[in-house]
Amino acid sequence: MFQESEREAELNRLERDFLTASVESYERGRRSAVRAARRLRRLIVALAVLLCAALVTGAVAWRQSGVSARQRDEAEARRVAALAGTLRATDPRTAMRLALAAWHTADLPETRQALRGAAAQSEQDVFTAPEEGGRSLNAPYWLSADGRILTTVAHDRATQWDVRTHRRIRAVRRDGLSAGVSGVSGDGRLIAYRGPHHQDLVIADLRNGSTHRLATGSWTDTDGAFGPSGRTYLQRGQPTGERATLTLWDVRTQRVLLRYDRADRDGPLPVLSPDERHIAWCTGYGERLRVLDVAERRLVTVPVPAATEHLLCRGDELTFTSDGRAVATVVSDAVVSWDFHTGRERPRLPLPGGTAVEFVGDYALTWTAYSSLALWRTDLPAPVDDGPREPLLTVPSPHRPSRACAWTSPTACCATRSRRVPLSSAPSRCTGSWAVRGGRRR
């Protein structure tokens, strides 16, 4: 301390002022640097805090955006899955696509359920024949035996549609077709209609345009239908008296194969067996069953039990089983069939509210007034406990099927009164909505 005082004493006034100014300048610079560093640190800290806040805010916003997007996708997926469920019966193909799209959009219990339902649903497609030439609500239609061709008649034009591809195959115009059409062959190739002035019956080939004329005469009180093979045509007419005449024609040669003059004029049209060897009908008042052997030209004389005969003639219409050995019909609570070779009634199929039945092979396809279809095995023995027989499967149908049903075991398809045809994805056989493999629904 004394040394510093001595040193300062050695400095003159000017040097001392310079030294003092230098020290003060140094101190000011140091303090300024400290303040600048402090401000920089504060700025850096503020920027870091702002950056962190921005990152946190962005992350939260991004997460919220993802949550919102996921919730939106889930809501949309649920809506699409619900829509798929409502379209399953009316537009099954779109329903399956929507179920798959919903599951791809969001993996939820609802979408998984919709996807499982699409995989298990029996309905595969629906084809609606367009109206030809304006509205024709009561226009007749026929489905081919293999279920591939739908034929409609309106405004004297026969139009055929490929049921699988939904494409029109052909349209053929014939004068007087709408007023006189009576049937289409099982293969969809031939169409029958009354000639001009109800004279004779014209058989037109829709594929090559050729025609054949069956000399049926000018009967006006007549009806008829093609045989199962399409090679024959069964006509019922009433030339005179109370009795009707059954005439079985060979379509290709225009020859009469059978003429039976003691048939009944009332009641449903007699039906041909699958082999076209037998014709079955009930008398006009539904009292007696008649089975005519075409080859031997005589009635089958095997006695039928009175109760069975009464039930068979109570049904709306008769049909043959697929083996051609039994006659069957649907009554209010069952399918009744009688084997006219053995004279015994076959095991009944319980069918409350039943309306019709079709037989193919060892299967029977039935449908009811409640718009449901059932598939049965007809070769199975009766239950050992005498309980009711059960169908292999029962499928609800949103449309009431008409008699335009065609199927080849084990698939089936039906045209409904609105000409909506349910289809399956089976590419090589009858495209049927309801398919069975080994008794399982697929």
Question: Would you mind describing this structure in some detail?
Answer:
- A hairpin with a 4-residue loop joins strand 16 and strand 17 (298-299).
- Strands 18, 19, 20, 21 and 22 form a 5-stranded antiparallel β-sheet that branches.
- The protein has helices at 2-10, 13-87, 92-105, 109-120, 177-180, 306-312; strands spanning 125-128, 141-143, 149-154, 157-162, 167-173, 181-184, 190-194, 201-205, 211-214, 222-226, 232-237, 243-250, 255-264, 271-272, 278-282, 289-293, 298-299, 319-320, 326-330, 334-339, 344-345, 349-350, 354-360, 363-368, 372-377, 393-396, 401-408, 411-416, 420-423, 434-437, 440-441.
- The longest helix has 75 residues, at 13-87.
- The chain has 6 helices and 31 strands.
- It is of the alpha+beta class and 442 residues long.
- The protein is elongated.
- Helices cover 27% and strands 34% of the residues.
CA radius of gyration is 43 Å
**pLDDT < 50 stretches:** 417-442
Approximate shape: elongated
Class inferred from helices and paired strands: alpha+beta
| Sheet having the most strands | 5 strands, antiparallel
DSSP strand tally: 31
How much of the residues is beta strand, in percent? 25-35%
Helix content: 25-40%
Number of helices: 6
What is the mean predicted local confidence, pLDDT? 79
Report, as a whole number of angstroms, the end-to-end distance.
Answer: 110 Å
